[in-house]
Amino acid sequence: MGTGTAAISPTRWMMIVFFVVCFSMMSFPAPVRARPDLEMRERFYGSLVTASTRDASNESSIADIFDRVLEKEFSSENDSPEGHDANSFNSTVADNQGIVETVALITHDKAKNNDTPSTNAVKPFQLQDVFSLGNEDSDGTQLIDQKDNLFVISNRKSKYPVLQLDLRLISDLVVVIVSATVGGVTFSLLGQPVIVGYLLAGSLIGPGGLNFISEIVQVETTAQFGVVFLLFALGLEFSLDKLKVVGPVAVLGGLLQILILMSFCGLTAAVCGANLSEGVFVGSFLSMSSTAVVSKFLVERGSTNSLHGQVTIGTLILQDCAVGLLFALLAVLGGNSGLLDAIISMAKLVLMLSIFVTIGYILSLSLLPRFLKLMIQLSSQTNELYQLASVAFCLLLAWGSDKLGISLELGSFVAGVMISTTDFAQHTLEQVEPIRNLFAALFLASIGMLIHVQFLWNHVDILCASVILVVIVKTIIVTGVIRAFGYNFRTSIAVGLSLAQIGELAFILLGRASHLHLVEGKMYLLLLGTTAFSLITTPLLFKIIPAVLHLGSLMRWLPTESMQSESCSLAFV
Q1: Most buried of the four, 6, 129, 410, 564, by CB within 10 Å?
Q2: Could you tell me which of 397, 418, 416 has the C-alpha nearest to residue 408?
Q3: Angle at 199 between CA 195 and CA 203, to 5 degrees
Q4: Higher pLDDT, residue 23 or 235
């Protein structure tokens, strides 16, 4: 070559061809290359990539791809917009034989665009507004049915699980606890029992008072722990030896008291021309005494280990167990079931009670002492685990007895008696006492909320006469029954006056009887007011017990022996 140009080597030719091909691929995307890449992305990400590739001219960002992957992963949860299928309502109504009725949906919005200036004007201050949640940010959606029953939506359906707070319950608990504290402190300074302060504080803030708390069902449910822990503590102070001593009079005597009252009221109704079934119900209603109030008084007076205290507690436990039997009897009195069905229900209840007590006795001799000893070893640094284990054991047995159809009260009492057979009874009582005191005050205040002060004041004359009649009749019957079991007059009268009131479980019986149309109208109001008034006068009854015993000794109606010698002499009965 004359020009002197050097020949291009094969290596340089290969580099030139490589750069040309790369430039061509960058400038003009080849369908041969794009199709396998698109197919591979569709195979991994699904059809979500196809639309975005078709619409977008640039490559998607990593955030977009990640968002589409999440959308595909959780697409099944988004199929139903409210977290349930469209036919769930109809299927629920059909499966449960529900009745569809019209309800009104009310939402409490802060302000609406079409509100008039007068609507948005500042309202005058009212004391109830302090405890109202109308100004909160929470959704206060409510439903009202055709009978003016108010329902609060507490479990709103949503796509995703969310934490839901019941601010109404928190507010109500704060009001109850603070008012119970003020009432208890006030009456303690006046030298009166704090229980009266709890009851009156509840009646003051409840629907029948200043109406600070209008929805009491949640407060009452939470306060039910008060009865559970009260009876658990009483069971801890019990012993099997003492239980064997008062067992016959508590079981047989308690049942005899109920039967005598039912027969007396039934015969009275028949003689007066009233309905026999209504009279029998009134007798069963009056036979109930207040476990929570009486137990609290016995604890405050230090009388739980006295003879009359032991008999009283045993009888109260029997009455709580008999509520299940009375429920079966109400169905017969209301005409909703036959006598054979009632007998079968009662037999099942007695069988379940026997099985429950037998299992508890076996566990108290075998596993329970080892479990408590292990908790003591684990709680060497702090009592947190032991306290938690004791509460869990109490609640577990209470829940189990309720599931068996017996009662929460019996289960918690049996749990206390089981621990009382071990060497850890006193230590357990020390751990449970603060919890018991808190929930007992809450429960008594919630009972007070059932008392309508205005109603009691308007009918104070007839209610006073009713309460006096109930106290006299129940004291005579209970005293006679206790005396028939060989106890002297002092113990019999002390037990009779202690059980002379009508208990809180009577509210449940009264509600069931009203549903079965056993009692209606004026009789319902009379029984409701008498029960509320008797709970208020219970502290007065406990105050006059020593005076009645002393007067009986002076009038030589009763023996002059002291209560202490009486307890010692009758401990072997």
Answers
A1: 410
A2: 397
A3: 165
A4: 235
What pLDDT band is residue 87 in, cutting at 50, 70 and 90?
A: low
Task: Give the separation between CA 223 and CA 219, rounded to whole angstroms.
Answer: 6
Highest mean pLDDT: which of 18-22, 124-128, 215-219, 237-241?
Answer: 215-219
pLDDT of residue 135: 44
Chain centroid to Cα 395, Å, comes to 12
With beta carbons less than 8 A apart as the criterion, state whether 179 and 202 touch: yes
**Single pTM value for the model:** 0.65
Q: Which pLDDT tens digit goes with each residue over 295-317?
A: 888 887 777 778 888 889 888 88
Buried b vs exposed e over 184-199: b needs ≥16 C-beta within 10 Å?
beebeeeeebbbbbbb
> Which uninterrupted H or E stretch holds 144?
strand 142-144
**How would you class 220 by CB atoms within 10 Å of its CB: exposed for 0-12, middle for 13-18, buried for 19 or more?**
middle
Which helix (H) or strand (E) segment holds residue 104: the answer is: strand 104-106
Q: Kindly give, in sequence order, each residue whose CB lies less than 8 Å from that of residue 213, ignoring residues fewer than 6 positions away.
A: 131, 172, 175, 176, 205, 206, 207, 219, 449
Compute CA distances 290 → 9, 148, 242, whole Å: 111, 31, 22
